[in-house]
Fold each of these.
Amino acid sequence: MLSKSFFKINNIQKRIVFYIVAITVPMFIVSLYLIQDFVSERLEKSEYRQAQLLNLNTLKEIERFIGRTGSFTEKAAYMITANPEHFEKVLPYLKEHVKKDSSVFGSALALEPGILTSEPYCEYFYKRNGKIKQTSLLPPEYDYLHKSWYADVKKSKTPVWSEPYFDKGGGNIYMSTFSYPVKDLNNRFLGIVTADVALNTLSKAIQKLAGDKSNRVFLVSKQGFLLSSYDSTFNLKKTIFDYAGFLRSDELKKAGSDMVRGVSGVYKINLKDGNYTLYTMFIPETSWTIGILMKNSVLFEPLNKLKKKLLFIMLADILLILVMVLIVSNRLKKNVAREEKIKNEFILASRIQQQFLPEKSDVTTNNFSLSGVMKPAKEVGGDFYGYKIIEDKIMFYVGDVSGKGVPASLFMMASQMLIEDAIDEQFDPAYVLNKVNRKLSKISTTGMFATMIIGMLNLKNNEFTFSVAGHPPFIINSNGAVFSPVTRFAPPVATFGDFNYQNSSIILENNSTIIAFSDGVSEAENSKKELFGTEPVARILQDISGLTVSEIKERLLRNIQQFTAGAEQNDDITIVVVSSSVML
């Protein structure tokens, strides 16, 4: 469980919480909104496609119903065309089809007088009380010659579905008639074969296709008559416009106008019980239009559920962000305190290390001058230098410990203490290196080592004695000649405990200058990963007329700084410049 102190935050943490929340929460909300918007758009299109698919399936089902209903009339017409003198033979076929096909209420053979028969002829088979009845529909009681289902087909000589009508004297029901023309081989009109569909049967079949109870299916004729409607008070009695007026919906009136013109489309319909989407499709075979009115709350229910889930996820994630911010800020507070402590320890370590360096970086006497500097790459470094003067002799040293940071600084301080002790015992470079090497080899268990150069200048005779342990060679300007006298290789101290370091000596001309430095000078890198090298150091020594050792040192530092401009210092830099006489 979280303790009470967990929720106690200081001003810094408050600012952290504020900044994180101010940045992340809006970004998170915008991201969720974009995801929700993207998914919603896709899901909405998917729902529309499903609705259109339902409409299309309904349309296909109606087309199958209509096609199945009228298909036998075509076959009957071909039977008469093939054998017009025996047209009566088609009557049993019509009767049998009415009996077997539940979607067909009746079928008639109506002929044009004066061609196959001298008088009007119209035999009609229809269902009544489970039986197939036969009647003759003849003028004057039933003037089939002037009925639209006959007259329109006679005129066009093409199959036609009639507008809905009440067949008084025939089936005495609301029906629509599919009339197929009968022609002879010379394309002369002989009559028609009909298939009558009871509209209440068609309506029931259509309403079963609606699926969900909230869906409302309409079948509208080209005159706007409701052939099928879910509302029994309007079904087969009123037009789509009457129903739109009843619902007080101008949108439905507009859709109705498009439906009677055979225009398919999608419409937004707002009713008292909610918002709906109306999908309409024209049926070319009949000139009718099918429409499905779907309630948006049902149509877009998956979309609404998704929005609620995304809202819940957003709120939960915002709460989680706040909790995580508190956790992170508390950890950050501890880390800041820890880092502050470490920083203070580094500062203290740096101060202690500085105390091991010479108290005076510049020293000048009548016989010589010396200037030194150590610039650590980090808070603490592994480079060191020092000097000691006894009578007419000056001994100086430069060292570089392997590694960086605190371990290197500790090893550096140990090395420098051992050097100082050894110098106090004997003023001899090789002696100092040998003693330091033996001591460090015993105490070094981490594989650390140090490179060193120790030089001693005898001011009486200008003899320079030195011993080098794996350190970059120093460079001398002796009366204008620039060179390095180091020819003997020796390993760094603490690598071989029994190694015996030797001295080398050289007599310098008066006014000679020596530069000793660590590899932080020669291996200083610029932004192109190029090294500074030792040649620039030698070039500086070639023209030092009138310069003090401090000015020589500063010139070298400036050159290094210009070379490495834009690059981070990657190693400690140590420089010691010694002159055998005061430079004026």
Amino acid sequence: MNDMWISDPKVAEAMSVEYGRVDSMMPVQEVIELMLREGWDEVIICNEQGRLSGLVTKEHLVSCISQGYDSTQPIKTLTREQVVTTRPQEDLSKARDVMRDLQIGRLPVLDDKDQLVGILTAKDVCNGFSSKLWQQGEQLSAVMENITEAIQVIDCDGMVSFWNSEAERLFGIKGRDIVGRKLADFMPDDLPLQAIKTLQTYRNVMDELGGGVPVIRNAAPVINPDGVAIGAVCTTADISEIKLLMDKLNQANQRVRNLERFMIQQGTQEYVSFYTVDPKTQRLLEQARRVALTDATVMIQGASGTGKEVLAHLIHTHSKRADKPLIEVNCSAIPESLFESEMFGYEAGAFTGGSRAGKAGKFEIANGGTLFLDEVGELPLDMQAKLLRVIQERRFYRVGGVKPIEVDVRLIAATNRDIVQLVREGRFREDLYYRLTVVTFQIPPLKARPADIPGLVERILKKLSRLYDKDIKRVDPEVMDLLVSYDWPGNVRQLQNMLESIVILMEGDVISRQTLEEVRVIDILTGEKGLPTREADTAPGIFDDDLKKSTDQRERQMIIKALRDCAHNKSSAAKMLGIARSTLYYKMKVLGIEDNHVNLY
């Protein structure tokens, strides 16, 4: 039996604790009379010290008496010198094998001190396995009944053998009405029936039930050890709440994007171009405006927070498609099972009980405009193949559709990954790479254009002052020097988030070094470059490990505060800190921060 499904019972679970027991010096005749009176089939023989010395069965006694054995002799004369025993914690299957191999029907059971605690008979072995199987069956049934997914089990003829309460709720069919009947009578061509018919496994199948309930389904044939299909099992998970949360998250992300756009908006209503006084970056922007007038596909590369989305909007705004929609797609946030329906939509009736009107995908919505594929380097290979086919053919089919839909879409892609290296490693299709990189822009990191920082600080603070009703009069030169000299691993986004944190927490109208100390960002700005802090000035003999501990403690406090201020939303906390979410998770692990809403305080 497979140990993954049922554990082997122990001898203690099956042995008998009521058994015959006599002294080794008791005459055989008295033993026979006692066994007949008590109805024993065997007796345990014990010596003068009360320890096991042998075992005699009724059959053995009858055989000896019939052969003329003197019944006045002590019972010990009929016992074997060596008795095979077992232990309470021995696997019952091992004890069974011993009994079968030695052809014995009983095993005395001794504890760790060799004290007799029971006897195991062949009947006990059978009852032990039967009881364990029944217990495991009850447990398995309880698990399947209380699991949060609908479970359907059918045999190879399509007869329903199991239907849990979640299946009753999702499909609206009571178990008592369908168990023992053909599934096809209720749900023709349902997924488990297809699994039986094709002997294929179906994973992450997107579907919609009656009333438009979105679900994810998995089905597989059940194959016995001989390779014969004996049925199929199907699980169906209601993802209504997940979809609702995704919709709320998308709405929240849209509000965040709107706020970011407001904060970098100029006096006019035009979405801001890239602010820069750096000559190389200015030349890049001039090239971007020229490219915007064409329909060339553009790849924007750069580290997180450098402004890839801003550049994409600039290109769209200056293009001939500016009056058409710009549809943004975060490629890393689309589950593989939902990729086709999200990008290409689905037809009415494509899913069981699906929406009557169907749904348009991102390509169809962006028709005539621009489709911005952010984080395109995160796309799995099979998704890349589907995307490439649409780019090449400029048409696609909705899920469940038979009529091709032609689109006129301008593509802009962006990634913070080394896309060329991904191609070399075989993690990004070379043909898709060439399709997306007709024109490539590499946005330099903020540390490569420090001359931009004073202007960015001024513009960002102006917007933040309006947003939070603050009157920020100036930034001390010492603070500006710190801002300019810092490496900014999170680039403009980190700068913006740090300034927002300062504005929210500060008192007064001047951002000074004391302000940075009060809002606890001074160590970030000074520690990155190894510049002296006040602690270092007052303790010049401090060792590197003490400095690291001090820096780690300050960093830990900042992360805890950001998590608290963002109601434990890690994405928002990462943005406030100006770091990637994966970096936040890593730092929480290294610094021992448990986000359980208790240990943070």
